[in-house]
Design a protein that fits this description.
- The structure is a homodimer of 276-residue chains.
- The first copy, chain A, is α/β, with parallel strands linked by helices and 276 residues long.
- The first copy, chain A, has one domain: TIM Barrel (Alpha-Beta Barrel).
- The first copy, chain A, is 45% helix and 15% strand.
- Chain A has an eight-stranded parallel barrel, surrounded by five helices.
- The longest helix of chain A is centred in the C-terminal third of the chain and has 22 residues.
- Chain A is globular and about 55 Å long.
């Protein structure tokens, strides 16, 4: 999916919402837990209930891998379900991979061929050859960790890296040269919205994946104020606040209500910015 | 496995060799490719032929994930085979994971419970909460990326990070405080042996996993000269140079010959250092 297509979907749905599928056995509604494929069944119902409000879904790989083969199988079923039923949805593998060239090539094969994802999150520490193999797939995306919103983000991301800039700024500046705004996006932690100004100085045209709305805190209006560009340029994720809003048989309906609340806020923001 | 046990194995086998299982369909001997579980069959024969010469095996996750469910299944069979037949072997998941706390917890569950690995490689960019969840498993290890030997290593790892030190040095210094030499190791690229002096200044007692011997270049004698400590403190990996040394039905025998060559060099080094 190219960036024009993504912007078209944002305008059509009046939404830049991504729903994170951090699907965990212990948090599933009780009536699903004894099913044969409980993670897939949960995801399927969430997706069917929210597909018109979200432009993207983002399975978090750790939650599937920890179940081994059956986890991997249910991840595959989830991606295939979206692909078959909702072909215009953008699907992100939140995998944070990053290795040397020949290994990164295998990870690209994993997420773009074996599984049919549109994008994969990648850790930048090992440099350009961690990223380049993913860029060899036309229409697919790499989403590079730039600034994150977790406690440990302060440990290294904000260190001075010379030339009066911090490490995350150097990462943005250098990595932007490895591809273009049509195949690279960045993860930017929403709880640090003031940083968005700095991020936009360096990468004005790239899409930013903002993971911090909802259970992790963060303010949608502030993110839009400082992070939005003329083609929206934002994909804002919410996971737990939507998918675990209810734990009864009504979970998918309540997830829809929560997604709708967020989508309505996004609609207002897009209208105020004159983007639809 | 604790560090004393690991050192005992090194002395017993007169080896600090780790064999990397970067097992790839396209590189398998022809007669294995039509088998039901070709990756596992290859690994099993390599392991059975080399288990007395190596102290560790290191499957590279990308090579299994790219086959989906069956890849994951064959990885599991490989780990179980080592566990059951050779209980004193150290097993490393080369996975380079790294995420926020609740996701890292799931990755720890994946590699230490779902799969029965002793250690997992982790990327440091997201900071302490990427690492801490792995340290909650007694007897298991996290192996943090410090300096790597790939082309892209220069992009960020050697940037000045203030206080007259480079990023990898800051990562070593800070992360060493999150655990101890009994639960943290570091990945240090062997092709930059002169850096080992600097690494040993900061982490004199930690084990270092050196990935660069063999196909990636690097010099065993230099690595030992500058990286070895009084309890060896080195695990040196070789992947392709051993496992793909031959592509006929004799592949396991030839792999053994190559492993033996390396083990004999290691034996000499350990003797010269007075370590056995």
């Amino acid at each position: 999916m190219n960036s024009e297509h993504l912007f078209d979907q944002i305008k059509l749905k009046q939404s830049f919402l991504c729903i994170g599928l951090d699907t965990e056995m212990i948090k599933l509604p009780g009536h699903l837990r004894d099913m044969n494929l409980p993670l897939f069944e949960f995801n399927r119902q969430i997706i069917d209930a929210t597909h018109d409000l979200a432009i993207a879904y983002k399975p978090n790989l750790a939650f599937y891998e920890c179940l081994g083969e059956t986890g991997w199988h249910q991840l595959e079923l989830t991606v295939n379900h979206i692909r078959e039923r909702y072909p215009h949805i953008f699907i992100i593998a939140d995998a944070k991979r990053g290795d040397i060239g020949n290994t990164s090539k295998k990870y690209a094969e994993t997420f773009f061929q074996q599984l049919n994802f549109d994008a994969v999150t990648v850790a930048p520490y090992m440099g350009s050859d961690s990223v380049l193999p993913f860029l060899e797939y036309p229409g697919r995306w790499v989403i590079i960790l730039a600034v994150t919103s977790n406690k440990g983000a302060d440990d290294f991301q904000f260190l001075s890296s010379g030339n009066h800039e911090r490490l995350f700024e150097t990462i943005l500046r250098k990595s932007a040269q490895w591809g273009n705004p049509g195949n690279i996006m960045y993860v930017v932690g929403a709880t640090r919205a003031s940083l968005l100004v700095k991020v936009r100085d360096i990468v004005p045209d790239h899409f930013l994946l903002i993971p911090g709305i909802g259970a992790q805190g963060g303010d949608l209006a502030e993110v839009a104020e400082y992070g939005m560009n003329s083609k929206c340029g934002l994909i804002v994720n919410s996971s737990r606040a939507i998918i675990y809003a209810d734990s009864t048989e009504r979970f998918a309906l309540v997830a829809r209500e929560k997604a709708l609340e967020t989508q309505l806020q996004m609609k207002n923001i897009l209208r105020n910015k004159g983007l639809y």
